[in-house]
Design a protein that fits this description.
Order of helices and strands: HHHHHHHHH
Largest sheet: none
Number of helices: 9
Radius of gyration: 20 Å
Strand content: under 5%
CATH topology of the largest domain: Rna Polymerase Sigma Factor, Chain: A
Oligomer: single chain
CATH class of the largest domain: Mainly Alpha
Helix content: over 70%
Number of domains: 2
């Protein structure tokens, strides 16, 4: 099998979102490929890790829908399509943020703006909720995935530092964070909608 082909057994295992070893395998195999794609699409370097994480999350959420078209490189073409769609959405969002309001329009907007809620209080509440729910779902994940999530999301350590500390790739950390945060969001939704 050439390095461009994908083991079908790995793809089948990816469809089980709790199969950490398959996801680790996938990230080790494809992280470089995805980063190169993101760069080739023209994403600014400072956004490459975030966009790559968004792609990994999109893959995790949609890999069940992938079907082999019988042609060589079918899975990589699918990955490229998913990646392109995420990059296009990212670029559209970025363009919206480039424009701005100035002059009298800015002054009017500032004068009519309502006082914002206490953002610090909201942030602390959301953080505490995430910590509490995270503890509720901790048993569903491997300890290595959990540590990567906890150190980067809860303790706020840089991904690069945690990558070295745990001796895992940055992509693996992003995947762990995405999967655990996805589970936390679902749990929070379940709590809010009994």
């Amino acid at each position: 099998m050439s390095h461009l082909e994908t083991r079908k057994s790995l793809i089948v295992k990816l469809k089980d979102e709790h199969n950490d070893s398959a996801w680790r395998d996938f990230v080790c195999t494809y992280e470089g490929f995805l980063i190169r794609l993101v760069r080739r699409y023209g994403v600014p370097e400072r956004h490459v890790p975030d966009v790559t994480q968004q792609i990994l999350l999109a893959i995790a959420q949609s890999v069940e829908g992938w079907t082999d078209d019988g042609q060589p490189g079918s899975f990589r073409r699918w990955l490229a399509t998913v990646s392109r769609n995420i990059v296009v959405r990212f670029m559209k969002r970025e363009r919206k943020h480039i424009g701005g309001v100035g002059g009298s329009d800015l002054l009017t907007a500032l004068q009519t703006a309502e006082a914002p809620p206490d953002q610090e209080l909201i942030h602390r509440y959301e953080h505490e909720l995430i910590v509490w729910v995270a503890e509720q779902v901790r048993h569903e994940f491997l300890e290595s995935s959990w540590q990567a999530f906890w150190l980067t999301v809860i303790e706020g350590k840089p991904v690069e530092a945690v990558s070295k500390e745990l001796n895992v790739s940055s992509g693996s950390i992003y995947m762990s964070r995405s999967r655990i945060m996805s589970r936390i969001r679902k749990k929070i939704l379940d709590l809010n909608n009994p």
